[in-house]
From TrEMBL:
Entry keyword set: Membrane, Transmembrane, Transmembrane helix
Membrane spanning stretches: 16-35, 55-78, 85-103
Gene Ontology, cellular component aspect: membrane
Name of protein: Putative oxidoreductase
InterPro entries named in the record: DoxX (IPR032808)
Membrane-topology descriptor: Multi-pass membrane protein
Subcellular localization, as worded in the UniProt entry: Membrane
Length: 136
């Protein structure tokens, strides 16, 4: 099946609603990274794949940097500015967070699939950069 020739029409309002709903989780999570730094770091260090949190140096640095990216890219996605790049930046943050915190633990199976669903929304925006053009 050749997907490049397939297009669909979607409601502009539905795109805005999806964009707002996907962006808000990152904006809210960024505040948790800033104001509950110790708690977030302890989650990394107690996770089975916590070593991923050490790839940028200290887990504190990783948490602060990911919080900054989530806040800036989340706001960008929220307001519809550079949505493709915002989505790509959020994907770059979401994947290591998901691998570090949710993978390999039965207790986080629900949040794992929540992150997979959010990843789907981000992929949607990264693959459809012109969705912010209101044509109807």
């Amino acid at each position: 099946m050749n997907f490049q020739d397939k297009t669909i029409t979607v409601s502009y309002k539905s795109v805005v609603i999806l964009r707002v709903m996907v962006s808000l989780i990152f904006i809210v999570a960024s505040f948790s990274h800033f104001f509950k730094l110790e708690h977030t770091v302890s989650r990394i260090e107690s996770a089975k794949l916590g070593f991923i949190g050490h790839m940028l140096g200290s887990p504190e640095t990783a948490v602060i940097l990911s919080g900054i990216v989530m806040l800036i890219a989340g706001i960008s996605l929220l307001i519809g500015f550079k949505t493709r790049w915002a989505a790509i930046a959020l994907i770059a943050v979401l994947i290591p967070i998901t691998l570090t915190i949710q993978v390999g633990q039965m207790a986080t199976l629900g949040p794992l699939f929540k992150n997979i669903a959010i990843l789907g929304g981000l992929i949607f925006f990264s693959m459809n950069p012109k969705l912010n053009d209101q044509t109807s």
